[in-house]
Amino acid sequence: MDVYNQTTVTEFILIGLSDLPEVRYPLFVVFAAIYQVTLVGNGAILLAIGAEKKLHTPMYYFLANLSLLDIFCPSATVPKMLQNLLTEKKNISFLGCAFQLFFLVALAGTEVFLLSVMAYDRYVAICFPLCYTLIMTKGHCVQLSAGTWAAGFLNSLLHTVFTFHLSFCKSNQVNQYYCDIPPVVALSCSSTYMAEMLVLVVGGVLGISAFLITGISYIYIISTILKIRSAEGKRKAFSTCASHLLVVCLFYVTVIFTYLRSSSSNNSPARSRLISMLYGVITPMLNPIIYSLRNTEVKGVLRKFLCHKTYLQKR
After folding, report:
1. Can you give the three-state secondary structure of the chain, one letter per residue?
2. Does the pLDDT at position 57 exceed 90?
3. Confidence grade of residue 4 (pLDDT, cut at 50, 70, 90)
4. What is the predicted pLDDT for the residue at 1?
C-alpha cells in the first residue's frame, strides 16, 4: 500500500453480534440481568466484609479485592456491549478503544495475580497455621495486593503502548464486542511482530508463573490436608480453601474453554464472539455466589444483614 494513500483510523467499529440481529434484544435482556446480579452480588460481599469486624482477616481482605475486580472488569466492556446491542451505533473512538483495552487487560491480569496470592494465603494458613499471623501481617497483605494491582496495570500499559503504536490503515472493524489485543492488532498495516511477541513472552511468563504458584500451592495444601488424621480436621481445613479452589477452577476452565472454542475452525466468528461474551460476564457473576454459598461466615453475615434490613422495614 502506498504510504500516501494510507488513511488514519480515528475510530473503530465493534462488530459484536451484528451478523446475528435476531438475538440482539434477547441478549440485551440476558446480559443486562447478569450484569445487575454481578454488581449486586459483589457489592454485597464488599458490604459484608466492610461491616463485619470478624471478617477483617487476610483471606477476606483478598476476597474484597477480588469482588472489586469482578465489578470493574465487566464494567469495562458490558455497558458498551449493551449499548451496541440496543442501538445501531457500534463505533468507539480511537482513544476510547485504547482506554477500554488498557483497563480490560489490566483488570484481567490483576485477577490472575490475585488468585495466585489468595492461593499462597491459603497455603500459609493450612501448611503453617502457627506462623500464619506472623507471616500474613496487615502490612504484608497490603504489599501483596498492591503488587498484584501494580503488576496488572504495568503489564497492561506495556501491551497498550505497543498495540496502539502500530499504524492502522486497513479496515477499522474490530472482530469482537470490545477492544482486545488480538482483534485490534489484526487491523494494523505495519509490522505486528513486537506486539505479538510481547503478548507471547511477557503474557506467557507472567501467566504461567501465576498458574504455577496457584497450582503448587494447592498441591502442598491437598498434601497437608490428606495427612490430617481426623475426618473433622480434614473437613475444616478443606472448608477454608474450597471456595477459592472452585473460583480458581472456574476461572482457568472458562479461559481454556473460551480460547479452545474460539480457535476452533468449526466455530463461526459470531459463535466465538458469543462465547467470549459469556466468559466476560458469567465468571464475575458466579464468584460471589460461590463464596456466599460455600462460606458459612459470609453467608451468616449476609443473612444477619438481610434480617436486620427486613426488621427495620417492618417497623
Report:
1. CCHHHCCCCCEEEECCCCCCHHHHHHHHHHHHHHHHHHHHHHHHHHHHHHHCHHHCCHHHHHHHHHHHHHHHHHHCCHHHHHHHHHCCCCEEEHHHHHHHHHHHHHHHHHHHHHHHHHHHHHHHHHHCHHHHHHHCCHHHHHHHHHHHHHHHHHHHHHHHHHHHCCCECCCCEECCCCCCHHHHHCCECCCCHHHHHHHHHHHHHHHHHHHHHHHHHHHHHHHHHHHCCCHHHHHHHHHCCHHHHHHHHHHHHHHHHHHHHHHCCCCCHHHHHHHHHHHHHHHHHHHHHHHHHHCHHHHHHHHHHHHHHHHHHHC
2. yes
3. very low
4. 39
